[in-house]
């Protein structure tokens, strides 16, 4: 049956929206710390090195959380893992607003990182297993959209509390405590809403809970879809391979390689470096701090708008086409930035530099941002899905940590122009990787992809029906 001849039940989209709220918390927590740093430095008397530790400590927790998420998802399910991450967000956000010293703040930030790691693992996985094949990419991309919205909301929230501090409504201490503590509100909302979501039918089938699997499928699928999908799921459940054998299985190791490489490509594209250091980059372009911060907010808005377009394009053009387009746009924008910074930013060149940064954001938001999370939730076989997503999610956070730690040092060493030249070269290498290894999984069921993986077809063909 053509998957486009029927509409989907509204509950599918409601589930997608609620589960994607994990991305909102992800984005808010990434963005909110930027506005609080100057207040923290004054109030807690922190050195520059200590500020860097406060910022990066959440990434340490995220790596650890991602590494432990496979066991949590395997043992207790995706639904439970999302609930745990929301609960940690609530407690961690409130605790971070109450700390009174540097060491406690770092410890709380590491705990919040655990929640980030679990959420970034569990939410895309849950979405991939709940979504019909023909809108799976769209629902998983909703998670990336929520991340971008969360970042913008964090910037705006910081701006509000900063203004309240400037007008004397809040003290310096109160300003940063509100900035860090406000995350508890959406986290509590998400916790309550997730309580009403069903567990993943693929996880319940894996645990032998066939009656619950059927109940869930009847809730989220039309009647004529339920039993064919149930039988397809049951067929994959019977195919059990121990983890130690998986690690010797070339078919499985190939998709692990694909997932890890895609996450590294996403991080080393330079997107997070631009988000982290946009004010510094534009400071070198001659803009003052206020101008630079508003440009950063504008970057966030463009990121959101473009990601919205990607929700449509990912099912129309497919995964491969968007990744090719993204690599081309990233190459053009980073090459332009390398040239402009090398020539020096006059008034005209400065405006061209801003336009190039926005082109970079568009290129990333329409491709690397949503598509990588989508593919990494699709390509792993059911019995090994937790282990596979553990590897790729940990790679994401490891790459994120490396970018946060070394981007500024690389800029100082080779100059901003040299930094963008490196990114341009990486965009070319990424395009070549996509050409030989990237599959197209549009409109293909997870079970069909799994059959192709075990059949040891080339990576670029595992999405063929």
List keywords for this structure.
single chain; 465 residues; mainly alpha; Growth Hormone, Chain: A; 19 helices; 0% strand
Task: Summarize this structure briefly.
This protein has 465 residues and is an all-alpha fold. The protein has helices at 10-43, 48-76, 78-96, 102-130, 136-166, 172-181, 184-194, 201-206, 210-220, 223-237, 243-246, 250-268, 271-284, 289-316, 319-343, 347-365, 368-378, 385-437, 446-454.
Question: Could you explain how this protein is built, in words?
Answer:
- This protein has 465 residues and is mainly alpha-helical.
- The protein has two domains: 1-197, MFS general substrate transporter like domains (Growth Hormone, Chain: A); 241-465, Growth Hormone, Chain: A.
- Helices cover 81% and strands 0% of the residues.
- The protein is built from 19 helices and no strands.
- It has helices at 10-43, 48-76, 78-96, 102-130, 136-166, 172-181, 184-194, 201-206, 210-220, 223-237, 243-246, 250-268, 271-284, 289-316, 319-343, 347-365, 368-378, 385-437, 446-454.
- The relative contact order is 0.13.
């Amino acid at each position: 049956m053509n998957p486009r001849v029927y509409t989907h039940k509204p509950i599918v989209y409601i589930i997608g929206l609620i589960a994607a709220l994990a991305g909102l918390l992800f984005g808010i927590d990434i963005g909110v710390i930027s506005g609080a740093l100057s207040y923290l430095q004054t109030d807690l008397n922190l050195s520059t090195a200590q500020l860097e530790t406060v910022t990066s400590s959440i990434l340490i927790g995220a790596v650890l959380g991602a590494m432990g998420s496979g066991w949590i998802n395997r043992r207790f399910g995706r639904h439970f893992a999302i609930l745990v991450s929301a609960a940690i967000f609530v407690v961690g956000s409130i605790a971070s607003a109450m700390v009174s010293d540097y060491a406690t703040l770092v410890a709380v930030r590491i705990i919040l990182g655990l929640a980030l790691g679990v959420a970034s693992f569990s939410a895309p996985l849950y979405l991939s297993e709940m979504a019909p094949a023909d809108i799976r990419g769209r629902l998983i991309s909703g998670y990336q959209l929520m991340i971008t919205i969360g970042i913008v909301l964090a910037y705006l929230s910081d701006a509000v509390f900063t203004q309240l501090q400037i007008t004397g409504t809040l003290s310096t201490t109160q300003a940063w405590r509100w900035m860090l503590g406000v995350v508890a509100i959406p986290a509590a909302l998400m916790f309550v809403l997730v309580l009403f979501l069903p567990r993943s039918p693929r996880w319940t089938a894996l645990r032998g809970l066939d009656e619950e699997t059927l109940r869930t499928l009847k809730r989220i699928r039309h009647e004529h879809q339920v039993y064919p999908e149930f039988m397809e799921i049951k067929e994959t459940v019977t195919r059990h391979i121990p983890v130690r054998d998986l690690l010797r299985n070339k078919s499985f190791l190939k998709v692990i390689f694909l997932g890890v490489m895609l996450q590294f490509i996403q991080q080393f594209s330079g997107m997070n470096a631009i988000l982290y250091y946009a004010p510094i980059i534009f400071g070198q372009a001659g803009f003052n701090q206020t101008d630079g911060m508003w440009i950063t907010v504008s970057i966030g808005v463009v990121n959101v708008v473009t990601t919205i377009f990607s929700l449509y394009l990912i099912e129309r053009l497919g995964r491969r086409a968007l990744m090719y387009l993204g690599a081309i746009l990233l190459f053009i924008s980073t090459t332009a930035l390398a040239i402009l910074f090398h020539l020096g930013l006059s008034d005209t060149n400065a405006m061209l530099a801003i336009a190039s940064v926005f082109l970079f954001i568009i290129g990333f938001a329409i491709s690397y941002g949503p598509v990588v999370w989508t593919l990494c939730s699709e390509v792993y076989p059911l019995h090994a899905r937790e282990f596979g997503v553990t590897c790729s999610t940990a790679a994401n956070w490891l790459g994120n940590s490396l970018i946060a730690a070394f981007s500024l040092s690389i800029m100082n060493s080779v100059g901003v122009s040299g930094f963008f030249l490196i990114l341009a070269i990486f965009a070319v290498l990424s395009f070549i990787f996509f050409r030989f290894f990237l599959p197209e999984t549009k409109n293909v069921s997870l079970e069909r992809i799994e059959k192709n993986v075990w059949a040891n077809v080339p990576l670029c063909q595992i999405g063929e029906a």
